[in-house]
Amino acid sequence: MAGSLFTAQFKQRNRIIAGIMLIIAATSPFLAGLLLINYLSPQFSGPIAAGITALAFLLAVLLPWHALHRLALLGNRSLGQQLTEKLASVKTDIDSPGRWEFVGFSPGQELRSWDGETDCDIGFLSMDEGALIYHGDEYSWTLRRAAIDAIQALPVSGGLQRVVVIWHAPREPERAFTLASREAQTLRGANRATARLLRDLRQWHSASSNDGGRPPALGLPPTDTSGSYPAEQPPVGSCATILAVTIIVSLSIWHVAQRFISAGYYYHGILWAGLIAAAGAMFTVHFLGYLQSYEARLVPK
Question: What letters, b where the CB count within 10 A reaches 16 and e where it falls short, cover 135-168?
Fold first, then answer.
């Protein structure tokens, strides 16, 4: 089979691109405000300058939020097309229309981070007559309906919706994996598609318990979560990082903004303070993501 597509290098590249775009989205309103006020007059003040400054702060909140929803699935369409071609080369039937759903898969019952992604693997899922069938980039598996104990919605975390499937194997304790639909190009669209996937899975699971048919013998879903990190657990060093960045940002704001304010350029000072704070906040978020990814690699396999 061709090489892996959903690699750590792919995730790292996307994380860097997303980080740069979010910093631009958060800081560009302040830069635009400074340029506009300078264009009108370096000493420009009054209601219009106040409105420009307020608008800059509003956009600095809204633009990163909208950017995040669009960047969360960066490269998703291309991934789906490449994976279709890869699996078609080994004669799977994932090109059957209306049967397969493009999903993200992760072993375990909790939301975990895999090199900054909440998906461990990407693949195509089918609800066959008596089993779930999955063909993915790294894994392929079959899970009969009789082995599934429950299908639930994982509590939404960080704006992400996932489905958890709890299942069992003969003489084995309870197992679980999570799924998220990737049949979308934005986070909002993916969450809506995941809610639909949850309804479809529950309807399929509650149908006749007849496990007839002969689904392909691909093995059971993997359960190993090594190399990942609980998404909601702060990594070691996060407190020190936040404290250090807060001190640097505070000193920078004091050093830069107070000079403008002392000279009577109040709106310049406020916009510079917002610019520095936004850049510091975005840097902190993505640096903590790197710490989390690095700590996951230290967990012995």
Answer: bbbebbbbbebebbeebbebeeeeebbbbbbebe
